[in-house]
Amino acid sequence: MNKKRLIFSLILIFCSIIFLQVSYVFAQEESETDPRTWKYFRIIARAQDDSVFIKLQDELFIDPKLESYAITVNIIDPQVQTVIIGDETSPDAQRFAWSQLSKETQDKLINWTGTNKINLREAKLDYGSVFLRVIKKIKIKELIAPPKKVREIVNTTAYQNPYLQVFGGDPLGIPLKRGFGFSFYTGTPYSGPLETDKVGANFHLLGASIGVSTRIKELVLKHQAGATAGESESKFGKYNNLFTPKLGLDVSYVIPFGNFFQVGYYTVLDSGDYDPPLRVRVEGDTTYMPNSVIVDESFFNWEFRYPFRALGSTRAKVYVASYLGETHIGFSAREMRFAGSVFDLRINATLAGRRNFQLLIETLISDVGEGFSLTGFAFGPSIRMTKTPSGSFGVVCVMINGRFKIGDYFEEK
To answer: By the number of CB atoms within 10 A of the CB, which of 37, 52, 169, 338 ranks highest?
Structure first.
């Protein structure tokens, strides 16, 4: 009887051990839909997302600090657990032991559930993955969210922007101290490549700005003077452009109590001697395709905008604006994060008036590099579409646009 009891007890203990081990294995099993269970993942981090991405750099003694970077965590093997800043495959990537991070930082990284967290373990694919894998990564709460930066909603600091874009878009805004600083630009906030010759600089003081603009005629495709017969006959990209004077004065003011309404005034100081734009004749007509040529005029400008975050972006907004006598409606966002990609998106519609209706669509891919260069530069196609000489709606210009980071101002809370 005692032997039977002993055997029965041993069997019971053995079964209990097996059950506990199986339970442990299932408990450790990762779920593709639950980022908190992932053991090998990458986070496309941005300092403004959470203070943990600054604290992490403090604990790893990273200096100078990075505003945007990629962090790879591999804690599959309890004996070898690592943290990598930058491209995991690069020998120049900064590698650290997981134990160098505090328990609080480790927990925050493990429990991070944003769309910028990517599972690096091989996912199970099926026939629906082609259509559904990206959709599954969308989190409704991150499609649209309030701004993260105070400067994005404050009238005195809204001009701050660490990126210089080659053609159009938001001006580069460099602060000297919060509401005091300078901005520089090529084109207008609503223009694309080879659309306008306008360049300029502004001084910003507590929401107000004053500046001058001039022109670089090479920023549009062709002028009438010096054009060959073949160039004069070409109908691609030589109309629906904006030509500005030799010297203009720009003043503006962002209404206090928020960064949602800006008013401004533009006037010509010196029209100068200027090559007229190349003229393209309308097919079957004696008229020419329109351009907006500013010679001796003044304009009241305004923009009503609503800043927010779209897909974890920075500087996202929808807007309605009047600028140099033209009405614009559009959307723009920088550093949007979706399915492991980081990109900018700009869509601007210029309503018919001084020129024909025009649609600008531009996307810049910025996760080309790693570490600082993750968002240090971006390149991508910019497409302008408008009414063509034949009367149909078509493409007038396709070109690569780009932006470059000049500095970081992420320390501001």
So the answer is: 169
Q: What DSSP character marks residue 223? A: B
- Which residue in the block uniquely carries the two structure tokens 């590099």? 369
Pairing of strands 242-243, 292-293: parallel
Show the tokens assigned to 123. Answer: 């996912």
Q: Which residue has the higher pLDDT, 288 or 361?
A: 361
Q: Which two tokens stand for residue 43?
A: 């986070």
Q: Which residues contact 324 (CB under 8 A, 6 or more apart)?
A: 188, 242, 244, 266, 292, 294, 299, 301
**Which range has the worst mean pLDDT, 55-64, 73-82, 404-413?**
404-413
Tokens describing residue 262:
């800006």
In sequence order, what are the residues at sequence separation of 6 or more whose Cβ sits closer than 8 angstroms to the Cβ of residue 141? Answer: none
Q: Spell out the long-range contacts of 341-350 with Cβ–Cβ below 8 A and sequence spacing 24 or more.
A: 341/365, 341/367, 342/44, 342/366, 342/367, 342/374, 342/375, 343/367, 343/378, 343/380, 344/378, 344/380, 344/403, 346/169, 348/190, 348/192, 350/190, 350/326
Smallest CA-to-CA distance from 384 within 357, 403, 345 is with 357
pTM of the model as a whole: 0.73
Residue range 198-236, pLDDT digits in tens: 999 999 998 899 999 999 888 887 666 656 655 555 556
Between CA 375 and CA 261, with CA 259 as vertex, the angle to 5 degrees is 125
315 in Cβ contact with 333 (< 8 Å): yes
> What does the alpha-carbon distance between residue 92 and residue 48 come to, in Å, rounded to a whole number?
25
> Which parts of 13-171 are beta strand (E)?
40-46, 68-77, 80-85, 94-97, 117-119, 144-145, 163-165
Q: How far apart are CA 45 and CA 117, in angstroms?
A: 9
> Is omega for the bond preceding 276 within 30 degrees of 0, making it cis?
no
Give the confidence band of 369 by pLDDT, cuts at 50, 70, 90.
low
Q: If you compute the radius of gyration of the chain from its CA atoms, what whole number of angstroms results?
A: 28
Q: Which amino acid is at 369?
A: G
> In this structure, what are the phi and psi dihedrals at residue 380, rounded to the nearest 5 degrees?
175, 175
Tokens of 125: 């694919």
Q: Which residue stretches of 201-276 are H helix?
A: 229-233
Helices (H), 324-395: none
